[in-house]
Design brief:
Isoleucyl-tRNA Synthetase, Domain 1; RNA-binding; 4-stranded parallel beta sheet; 55% helix; Gyrase A, domain 2
Length: 565
Amino acid sequence: METFLKIISQLLATELEMNKEEIYCSLQFTPDGKFGDIAFPCFVLSARLKKSPSQSASELESKLSPPPEITEIRAEGPYLNFKVKPDSLIKEVLGTIHREQSDYGCSDECSGQTVVMDYSSPNIAKPFGIGHLRSTVIGHSLIRIYRSQGYKAIGINHIGDWGTQFGKLIYAFSQWGDSGRLAANPIGELFELYVRFHREAEANPELERGGRECFRKLEEGDQYAVNLWKQFHLYSTAEFDRVYKRLGISFDYQTGESFYNDKMPGVIEELKAKNLTKLSQDALVVDLEQYGMPPCLLKKKDEATLYATRDLAAAIYRFKEFAFDKLLYIVGAEQKLHFQQLFKVIELMGYGWVANCLHVDFGRIKFEGEEMSTRKGNIIVLEEVLDESQRLALRIIEDKNPDIENREQVAEDIGLGAVIFAQFSSRRGKNISFSWDEALNFDGQTGPYLQYTHARISSLERKYGKDIQANIDPALLSDQAEIKLCKQLGQFPLAINTAMRENEPFIIACYLLLLASEFNGYYQRVRVLVEDKSLAEARMFLVSAVRITLRNGLYLLGIKAPVKM
RNA sequence: GCCCCCGUAGCUCAGGUGGAUAGAGCAUCUGCCUUCUAAGCAGAUGGCCACAGGUUCGAGUCCUGUCGGGGGUACCA
């Protein structure tokens, strides 16, 4: 599709003596094919030519003569619309897809650049809750999206394994813990201790003091505290690994907060040397009052560090280590202020690269309207959701396609598809309210809908049983729906690019739903495997391109595309 | 109190930098499986885009205010 945009922008650039890139960017796809395929909005011309947009459009219409790939140039009000010759469209788009296969949509536009992403970041000693799902799947998807555009993408799981909460846990364990119970059911036991600590702390504030004291000891290297912490860590990462394996996610680095322990003193020294710190209420802070923000706390009055200290050390370390062109934090919107403070401090330290740091925020997940709180113990364990989703998928498979081989695996793929896709069902800024009904819905705008579409086309390919021919006669694909599908297919690279620029995998999810919906409408109405050999060949060429694109898109979202379901 | 985000169909959400008739899905109702997987398709119902002003040729989109919801606001992350 870019081919045609380039041809048109070249044509207009020559005629108007304007910048080609500028025109290229302003071109848009028409709403519904009624007005041709590609539109040039003439609003920008009114100031230049001192004419109304619609006047400019109609003048351009009479001046321009269409190149061979364009059948029609027409002014419609303020828009100048171009109609692409169907033959060219079909050959160009479908040809590209079949040639590039799983690379369709990829580009080397950003090769040579490095992006570092901080995502997932669950806390040890707690179950992997549904609250951490968003960061995990958005980050994973963005890694794949950036890589598809040529970036070297480095994924870091910034595990929450340091901080006051572990002091609390060590304290709780020292009071009520039991090694036997811990070994038998580590996460369950730790979770109970955590909840109990917060419950009892409400009546007895002494506990909070004990927790803080334990964290300070931990930071000082106290043997008892460190040993316990190591155990918690080991148990937790084993649990996380199980979840990540299931989701098909791996990280380049699993360097949690504790990794930056030995890097904090140097950063604090640097801040002091740059005269940025001061003592306020016995705590070591960077004052940000003149920037309208509360101070950034580096050390508590008991000398213990805070997460801002660790994030600061982490950012500086990452730049030294990876010399990134971009650093993304896939972290909930409630930490917005924290990142503003963090970035401001880095800026004050004189590091220009802070301009390339971005907090990619997202809304909360609420459970059927209720706030979820780890402290109070009402948490939805991700594995339970995945289990339930798989179970439901299995039930449907047994009902609809009982003879399928390895049904457990297919059910797992579908179940995961539903849960993961649900995370992309709205722009990331929105809060998501989790409900079992919606999470386990396989109808309509869902992952299984896309997977089902993919499986049906795969089934067609099996029935067809031959290799897809590339030298089809484009004139055989003359149905309006066929042209429309080609246009939609041609916009896939653009969708990926937009998704990357906006750090918004949702864009791809939307694109795929539209593609699948257009395909399903076509498939319902038009028979693909017809008697006429060359017609069947041509339709398979189209339909198979849809499958390739669906699979590539699902891959970018981190969702599997089974060939049967 | 102050700062940030949000308010579009009964519900969940789309509507890239203002621009061509406000769109999907779910739910409800009606059709479509002797032909490529009905996890599908076609259709119907459903909207003073929270409210009030303003900017302009043009506002769901931008500005101000009001109301309603969410988040943040120094020793949690």
